[in-house]
Amino acid sequence: MILVTGGTGLVGAHLLYHLCSTNNTVVATYRNKNTQNITKEIFELYGDTTNYKNIVWKKADIVDIPELEKVFIGITHVYHAAAKVSFKASDSEQLRKINIEGTANIVNLCIKNKIQKLCYVSSIATLAKTPGIDFIDEDCEWNPEGDHSDYSITKYGAEIEVWRGSQEGLPVVIVNPGVIFGFGAWNLNSSQLFSKIKKGLPFYTNGTVGVVGVQDVIFAMITLMNSTVINQRFIMVAENLSYHNIFSLIAKTLNVKPPKFKASKTFTEIAWRLNHLVSSLTFGTINFGLNKYSARAAHKKRYYKGDLIKKSITNFSYTPFTTVIKEICSKLP
Q1: Which are the contacts of 326, defined by CB distance < 8 A and separation ≥ 6?
Q2: How far is 203 from 257, CA to CA, in rounded Å?
Q3: Cα–Cα distance, 98 to 106 (Å, whole number)
Q4: Is residue 300 within 8 Å of 124, Cβ to Cβ?
Q5: Domain CATH number, residue 141
Q6: What does the alpha-carbon distance between residue 63 and residue 14 come to, in Å, rounded to a whole number?
């Protein structure tokens, strides 16, 4: 039987849809019952809720070992997609607890229960550019001296736990997606961007980022889990695009005005500090989501090579990003 952690997030919900179409039952963890609505909505957006009943929901927090032990009964394969995504300094402790300690708990229970294979959803945030090399690929390593966000640090720490598991005999695969785009979960991560642009987003930066459609990530995860490939990581990046290109493409598809004011580094440095001040004075009730790391990342130009997955999976090809955006926009509320 298959276990999916993080089944109420964007990746987890899309993963559950595809797994449930070929499996009688799939176990998924949740912490808050209300978040199951995200998963159900994504099934509805696919236009088929028939197999939603195949999800066996089990309440469990990945940092609560007694709860997790009950969830692992009868499990043979694990997709670990649960994580906290935040760039707020105030979330530092929670990021470490959920992303590192929680992943360690998953790995330990996989080993204890002799799980046949673990697929971990990491991030390109754990990879650093090697001097003299234009693209970041699977051979690029973490730079301990870099200026990393707590999110990046904790995702790297989680990877260390997964690699530890592989050394202790647990077969693993890791996917490192770029920024994932997919329909549904409209208030989470990249999905929030669509409503902001629809309402009117005036600013853009010329930084670049690797992007990928959620369904490409899901297809790769499922195929890798059903293959003989073990103890390997795969960067999942379809294209490297500037934020200006991404924002403009979304705006064009939604038939709204694209952002026209280029935000300089000085502008964003001032903006994140003002946001921090306002957020502190209002006890977090007013926060525009801009912080030190997101502001600086908006200007960085990094290019990722996602070719290894194409060599490892027969007939795999990335969905063009324009196609991904069109599908999302067509389903936007």
Answers
A1: 253
A2: 11
A3: 11
A4: no
A5: 3.40.50.720
A6: 24
pLDDT of residue 17: 97
Cβ contact 311:137 at 8 Å:
no
Task: Give the angle 227-233-16 at the CA atoms, nearest 5°.
Answer: 60
The stretch 66-80 carries a mean pLDDT of: 96
pTM value > 0.85: yes
Distance CA 4, CA 73 (A): 13
User: What region, left, alpha or beta, does residue 189 occupy, with left being phi > 0 and alpha being psi -120 to 50 degrees?
Assistant: left
What is the rounded distance in angstroms from the CA atom of residue 172 to the CA atom of residue 159? 11
Residue with tokens 């490892």: 312
Share of the chain above pLDDT 70, in %: 89
Q: Which domain holds residue 78?
A: 2-188+210-240+302-323
Domain count, the chain: 1
Q: Concatenate the DSSP letters of all residues of 24-85 into one string.
A: S-EEEEESSGGGHHHHHHHHHHHT--GGGGGEEEEE--TT-HHHHHHHTTT--EEEE-----
Distance CA 233, CA 169 (A): 16
Check whether 273 has a pLDDT greater than 70. no
Q: How many CB atoms lie within 10 A of CB 180?
A: 24
In a domain, 287, yes or no: no
Task: Give 61's pLDDT tier (boundaries 50, 70, 90).
Answer: very high
Placement of tokens 């730079």 in the chain: 143
Q: Which of 181-195, 209-223, 256-270 has the lowest mean pLDDT?
A: 256-270
The amino acid sitting at 275 is N
Residue 175 in contact with residue 122, Cβ under 8 Å?
Answer: yes
- 96 assigned to some structural domain: yes
The three-state secondary structure class of 160 is helix
Give 88-104 pLDDT, tens digit per residue: 777 889 999 999 999 99
Residue 47 near residue 189, CB atoms below 8 Å: no
